[in-house]
Amino acid sequence: MNEQTVSAWARMLRVELPDDRIETVTAQLEGQIAQGGGLPVDDVKEIEPATVFEPEWRE
User: Fold this and answer.
1) What's the whole-model pTM score?
2) Half-sphere exposure of 13 (CA within 13 A, CB side)
C-alpha cells in the first residue's frame, strides 16, 4: 500500500480525499490489511454495513 495507490482509489471511487489526509489514510489501510481486514466474522454478525463513507476522521 502506498500513497499513490490510495490517491488512485479515491479518484476511482469519487471520494474527495484532501492531500493532507492521504498519508494518514494510507497508514490506516496498511494496518487493516496487515490485520487481515479487521474483526472476525462473529464479532460483526449483528452490525449493519455503513451506508455512507466519511474519510474525515475526528481526532
Assistant:
1) 0.57
2) 13
